[in-house]
Input
Amino acid sequence: MTSNKTYDYVIIGGGIHGVGVAQAAAAAGYSVLVLEQTALANGTSSKSSKLIHGGLRYLETAQIKLVFECLSERALLLELAPDIVRLEPFYIPIYKNTTRRPWEIWTGLSLYSVLGKLKSDTRFESIPENKWSGLDGLATENLQAVFRYNDGATDDAALTRAVMKSASTLGAELVMPATFISSDASKEMNVVNYSVNGTIHSCKCRLLVNAAGPWANLVLDKVNPTPKKREFDLIAGAHIVIDSPPPNGMFYVEAPQDRRAVFVMPWKGKTMIGTTETAFNGDPSKVRPLESEETYLCEVAAHYFPKFKDLTRENIDSSFAGLRVLPHATGKAFSRPRETTFHVDKKLAPRIITIYGGKLTAFRITSEKFVAKFANMLPKRKRKAWTNKLKLKPVLSLITAIFLSTISTTTTLAQTSPTELSLEGALEIAKESSYSMRIAKYRELEAETTRKQVLASGLPHINGTIDYNNFIEIPTQVAPADAFAFPDYLNTYLYDLGVATGVPINAPPVDPNAISEFQFGSPQSASIGFTATQLIFSGSYIVALQVAKVFEESKAITTAKTEVETIKAVSFAYHTCLAAARNVETLRSALKLTEKVFQETKAMAEEGFIESNDVDVIELSVRKLKHELANSELQQELTLSLLLFQIGLPVDTKIELTDTMEGLRQKMNIEFEEIDVAESPSVMEQRYLYELSDWNFKSKKMSSLPTISGFYTNSQNAQRDVFNMFDFNEKWYPTQLWGLQIKMPLFGSFEGKHIRKKALVQTYLAATALELATQAAELELSAARAEFKRATSSILEAESNVQLASRIYDNVTLAHNEGVKSSFELTQAQNDLLSGEGILIGSQLNWLNAHARLKAATTTISK
Output
């Protein structure tokens, strides 16, 4: 365990409130350490509605003070962080069946403006009816009024990183990722223990701040003595992102299902819709949007925007959910207060303070209040700055720094050793950097892109064309000379007319073999136009959408399977490195001891107490040990290179392993639950492959259906004798047409029948492969359990044998020194001891590898 210095503040949690307190405390001159278990803003601070606002809807629950405070903070953040926080127009449409009537909204917005000190950015207006059509396709049926006001929006994760960066410039330190282990309260200090890459560190602090959000009470479980906890509810808020052009502002609408407030807003070039309020009781790290929540948000968007009338869960580009920490109550989450609560167990000295709840907008003022409230518990410090004057600039995501780290997964402003590598750290690096994981993630990304590509292939396509032609020679057309001659009846009529009038018609005789030459068109021509096409119906396209979706899901399963395999392979490599290092250590100890015996034996031989042959035997043992040691040291280097290769680091990287074989055995769980092998990664992957083969068969069946597509063409054409295409006084001739195209196979000599039969056979193959994978998983699980059981018994036997060999060697050495035992017997005893220690090392290696194998065999994933 390493010891570090004493801090005024140690803050658990790198969310917006944790880094906010860090900034405020550092600005006040206090020493600060922030411990974050994964990455800054990894929880709710990156999964909010991205709003910096006063909270118009909180006026309904009379939270006047909160709204006033948040509006003041919004104005300040717009000034301090103009690159992160921006002012956006908000639109509130009022329909015939909307719960809140126009006069209520007008009253609320008026109060909102007053609380915002009537500044220009708090004023509102009513949008005239003749401008409703320009509101991003908002449904206008039964629409009675639309109000527009302004509020703030942000990238919440970027804001969190910017605040931490500001805190670091004031001296605050960040250790990430760091696992909080425990905290022990003494009379004057908290002793905080945490681990970084498996290495345990400790420090002292005068004030421990629990800003872990949804994990707050779990952190308190690790504090000794355990403080009192506050009961709270976790409320999940889901958001969905649609790959659709973003609206020109935020739309504040009322969900038709339950009359909740929902926002439709722009987000990174797309459209985001949220949020929901659903009680959550599980592991906070595993919160995900429910299918019902995603459907709920799709229905809200479809209700208010006709362009989303066909929106379903399949059209969602991405989704996320964050957790709000709200006071425990039985009523709806909407009606509960949003103020931040500082929970203190007064029995503990020094105090341990837990932060519950709070709003993103008010993080700064909340943090200032926190520091001021507990200033009397800390030594007086010289203030460095005021947070209401500190500019916030965007910074590179610290997750990037973690990924780029070549030795440790720790990103810290207080430097840690770059050469130490624990098994846990090696596994974390391998999950991101190993070649197999990188390939798997790229293939998963490729599958996601393929799905989007397939979807786009059935959407409208518009192609533009510009053509220009300069005929150096206009093409000549030929035709029979009489192609344009009068018909016979007309020639007869004209002849008779000439006879009757006495005016003969001297027409040349018709030459049936003659030809006429013609030139049509102009030397200069140009055309500009576009063609739009739309797939109307295609059975293959419908199936392709499902195939692409299943394929994308299968790649996610493949990535999970690859992660399990990577963890197993890296664990094997790490264990082998430990065994190699242990073997080198054993041989060095044996060599040192044998060299000592050699010197003693040599001295005894020179005195004539023993024969010189005994000296030669011991010297030979020394030489053998040196040779074995050299080979073992080379083997150790090779195993380290293999480990580096497995985790994806350069093989010449210098590392030092911090774990030991005995230490790993003590930390590892030896209890494994019974599992359903149908949920093992290999079986799940094969199940998806079977599903893909089934969809492939359906695709072949659907290929016999017609494909219907429509097209529309619009072009302008110019015919000129000279090049004057840019003379807009000249005429351009339009061409427009639309049409339908229907393609349908009629007869293919039974090729389609054989294609479908082949696809059906492939489904049989996939089903057989699924059965094979299931049985193989069962066999692997049984074999892994048996191997682990055998390894456990073997290691106990090996430990007993080493103890026995060690006693024998000690006795023989003593007897040899007394001249009772020969050097041959001493050498034999030494060989037996080395052999026993080698077997023990091998048994420990086998046990660790068997444990890793069984852990991999019992890992399951859900579809």
Remarks:
- Confidence is low (pLDDT under 50) at residues 396-418.
